[in-house]
Amino acid sequence: MLLPKILPRNDDQRRADAYRTVLRYEAKIGGQLFGPIPAGHRREFFCLDVHTWIWHEEWDDEQSNHHVVTTRYDVRPTGVLKSQGNQSYQQVNRDELRNLVQAARLYNQRVAAGLQQLLQAS
Amino acid sequence: MSNHSNNSEKFSKRQALVYEAVGARNHIIPTAVNALVQIETAYNATDSARVQTSVSLSPVATTLERPTVVDSPQSPSEQVEVNSLTESVSAVSESTGLLNDETTSEQAARLANIAAANRQVNDVHDGLVRTD
Lengths: 122, 132
Prior knowledge:
Helix content of chain A is about 45%, strand content about 30%. By secondary structure, chain A is an alpha+beta fold.
């Protein structure tokens, strides 16, 4: 690789890269929590930070139009707010909150096991 | 040899950074899950508090002792209830011989008042339950 020699990377950049690698790994595991992913879809679900969960989905429809939907869940002391695309924030209803908590718990279990495998492989 | 040493140093540095990232994530994820669980718990607690409120309000409602609707016209069902109460009081007085006719009618009126008060309390309670 020529680029790293031209732009030498410091420890902070390497650290950020390693963190992103782990996050991408988690997002892939998270995307599989909701059942089989339809052909041509790309689905990711991950914990961005202690207050934020992201659900990202991309697919092409029959007319080859590309669709991207990113849903962001912000956990506040008063409840969970959700924003999708350019839409404003709205309060998550009870059923969706239940599903989100269930997904988050499952994510915690699966990712913990997955990260162990990642460490063993690295 | 030095090239090999360099590569292994790079590898261990990269490995150390991955370990560090995994360590950070192992702290962040359970904290994030816990925050969500707390929100859900608070949500459920709010719901059960709402049920508790309707339940705890009913004993207060039962303290209504003096209904103001005693003189209002009686509906057929109220009449049946009052009659049946009067009959039961009469039956008691006849069997025990303790109550004369005057006492029986006073008793019946009092029982009718209590029945009306109970109905009012039930209506208030139903209203609270329906509202919640």
